[in-house]
Amino acid sequence: MALRAAGRTSLVDSVVEQLRTQLADGEWAVGDRIPTEHELAKQLGVGRNTVREAVRVLVHAGLLESRQGNGTFVRSTVDPAAVLRGVRHAGAADVLELRVALEAEAARLAAARRDTHDLLRLRAALTTLREEGDRDADADLAFHLAVVGSTHNAAFVEVYRFFSAQVHEVLVEALGDREMPPVDIDAHEALVAAIETGDPEAAERQARELLRVPMETVAALTERS
């Protein structure tokens, strides 16, 4: 399929978006070599320098990979930026439902896999949460990252680290200055206890209970607005 010719305005951005679309639509599969700069420039009706800059953007985004002397190859057809935009456009309740799913599974895995170091880190995070106050977002995030870290699943940790930042942004944008309920320290304590005893079912149940009140609060606030 031929690419649409780019207009005169924001040429690099236009080429980037068209190449993103081609990747998402399956024009090239993972591992394929994309057309040369000369070929893309001819198809798009732009200069090679414009194509080169657009390809550089997509390499930096992790969608393409440049191999010296061999050309440029497709590394991924899933655009992280598109995922980010999707999360930001989701409703607060939808985002919290996803958070419940992630944290419930993290708690279950943590109870099955935690070691002595994990338990020490969880207790330290819980102590900090108590000392810093029940509205300290950083302390609360550190606690939940400690739970996720106890899964010993590197992919889970990276996904949660990325996702947790988006949760905060979505809630702030959706709810404005209206306050969420204070962090339930006792619920956090119960979650740590379940992980300590190595009970996956209890840990999952406590993780869901911990987020029950925030879920109900968001539902009530968004319904009124």
From TrEMBL:
Please provide an example of a Pfam family that matches this protein in its UniProt record.
Answer: FCD
Q: Which residues form a coiled coil?
A: none
InterPro entries cross-referenced by the UniProt entry? GntR_C, TF_FadR/GntR_C, Tscrpt_reg_HTH_GntR, WH-like_DNA-bd_sf, WH_DNA-bd_sf
What are the record keywords, sorted?
A: DNA-binding, Transcription, Transcription regulation
Keyword hit for Transcription regulation:
yes
* Occurrences of domain HTH gntR-type (ranges): 9-77
Please give the superkingdom of this protein's source.
Answer: Bacteria
- Name the residues that span the membrane: none
- Protein's name according to its UniProt entry: FadR family transcriptional regulator
